[in-house]
From TrEMBL:
Pfam families in alphabetical order: AAA_16, Cdc6_lid, WHD_Cdc6
Record Gene3D superfamilies: 1.10.8.60, P-loop containing nucleotide triphosphate hydrolases (3.40.50.300), Winged helix-like DNA-binding domain superfamily/Winged helix DNA-binding domain (1.10.10.10)
Domain Cdc6 C-terminal as annotated: residue spans: 306-390
NCBIfam families reported in the protein's UniProt record: orc1/cdc6 family replication initiation protein
Organism: Halorubrum coriense DSM 10284
Residue intervals of the AAA+ ATPase domain: 50-230
Record keywords: ATP-binding, Cell cycle, Cell division, DNA replication, Nucleotide-binding
Binding site for ATP: 211, 223
Classification via CDD domains: Cdc6_C (cd08768)
Described function: Involved in regulation of DNA replication.
Entry protein name: ORC1-type DNA replication protein
């Protein structure tokens, strides 16, 4: 009798990591203008001057993080060759799901000397964390570039972006020089910043636009060369992945996902080469994955509301009014041992956000003078997918 792996004799991948999210490309393709703008903005570092503050924006998967990492790496290599440059220290903080205190505290902990005890989680405030951060910058000296990724998720971005770039001018730092790089995929974030902050942060803005099919094709071709065993992937399959992603949002992550998942399907089915048909099938899987991630990005209570509507939908009780959704939501929150939001208004606010984000379909009901006007909601996606995702998340968090 054969073993379970007997049929799997061939692989299409020479190096699969090249197609995964964690892989940092050595070469950045099709972003020459952005790289040039970045180089200009960073050149002060090479002359020992205070770096400009940089704000990078553009939608998901357009290379903001990859280009930023690449630029910092290049800069770190260049600095030791320049006499005029101070020592360079780079730090990256992800702001998603964190408070300002957590972000600053985290930075402090990474800067503290090995033997020092970590900055306390409780008892001290954000101001204290900033003071400690400044002390550490000065203790270490040199130039510090701090990248704040997904900065639009930070509620107190104004405070951070007001404090840090001015720390030297305000006498909080004397020896070190600090530059801030903010990354955001929300264009409207800029409007939420106070005018005072805009003045400092907007020294350089670099905007990333969606890739077209030809650009995605260049990126994929290059990766495919390293990722696949020779000849196992049709060139038309690569073009297909590029074209599908370009039609959608011009997102390089999506293009890479389509190619990787398409190749996985071909491998699982023992069907080489990877063809257009594999990429087409991959599209469904990748889309499913995207929806799952979008659900994960929602706040805890927004997720309970989605779960509640999915339950109502499964038992045929949609479209539902906000009051009915609230009742089911309370049961859902209860089942996760969470205390539910108490007002109907807060549920309605969540519902309108979820509608705006494309999770819900909304129907306006007008019952004239007697019944009044109200909205009814149902999911605009498969309820089973919501429930599966929720079960998966709950497994890891409860
Ligand atoms: N120009 C490029 N050349 C090579 N690889 C690229 C390029 N642009 C993007 N990629 C790859 O595409 C994926 C997504 O890019 P990246 O994470 O930099 O996007 P992002 O704009 O930071 O998106 P998000 O806002 O979602 O974090 C990564 O795997 C990255 O390596």
């Amino acid at each position: 009798m054969g073993g379970p792996f007997d049929d799997l004799t061939e692989t299409v991948f020479a190096d699969k990591t090249v197609l995964t999210e964690s892989y940092q490309p050595e070469t950045i393709l099709e972003r020459d203008e952005e790289i040039e703008a970045y180089s200009h903005a960073l050149q002060d570092v090479l002359f020992g001057r205070t770096p400009e503050n940089i704000f990078v924006y553009g939608k998901a998967g357009l290379g903001k993080t990859a280009v930023t990492k690449y630029m910092l790496e290049e800069l770190r290599e260049e600095v030791p060759t320049r006499e005029s440059a101070d020592n360079l220290h780079t730090h990256t903080a992800n702001c998603n799901g964190r408070t300002l205190f957590m972000v600053v505290r985290n930075l402090v902990n990474r800067l503290l000397p090995d033997h020092a005890s970590p900055f306390p989680e409780r008892g001290l405030g954000t101001g204290d964390a900033f003071d400690e951060l400044y002390r550490q910058f000065d203790r270490i000296g040199g130039t510090h570039l701090v990248v704040f990724d997904e900065i639009d998720h930070l509620e107190d971005a104004n405070t951070l972006l007001y404090e840090l770039p001015r720390a030297r001018a305000n006498g909080h730092i004397t020896d070190a020089k600090v530059g801030v790089i903010g990354i955001s995929n929300d264009y409207t974030f800029r409007q939420t910043l106070s005018p005072k902050v805009k003045d400092t942060l907007m020294e350089t803005e670099i905007s990333f636009s969606p890739y077209d099919a030809a650009e995605l094709r260049t990126i994929l071709d290059h990766r495919a060369d390293h990722a696949f065993v020779d000849g196992v992937c049709d060139t038309s399959a690569i073009a297909k992945a590029a074209a599908l992603a370009a039609q959608d949002m011009g997102n390089a992550r999506q293009a890479l996902d389509l190619l990787r998942v398409g190749a996985e399907l071909a491998e699982q089915n023992g069907e080489t080469p990877v063809t257009d048909a594999h990429i087409e099938t991959a599209r469904e899987r990748v889309q499913r994955g995207r929806v799952t991630n979008k659900i994960r990005d929602q706040t805890e209570h927004a997720q309970y509301i989605l779960e509640a509507i999915a339950n109502l939908q499964t038992s045929g009780e949609v479209p539902a009014r906000s009051k009915e959704i609230q009742r089911t939501y309370e049961q859902v929150a209860d089942s996760h041992a969470a205390s539910p939001l108490s007002t109907l208004k807060s549920i309605q606010d969540h519902l309108s956000d979820l509608h705006m984000l494309g999770f819900l379909r909304r129907h306006e009901q007008n019952k004239g003078l007697s019944g009044g006007q109200y909205y009814e909601y149902e999911l605009d996606l498969d309820p089973a997918l919501v429930l599966e995702t929720r079960t998966e998340i709950a497994k890891h968090t409860e």
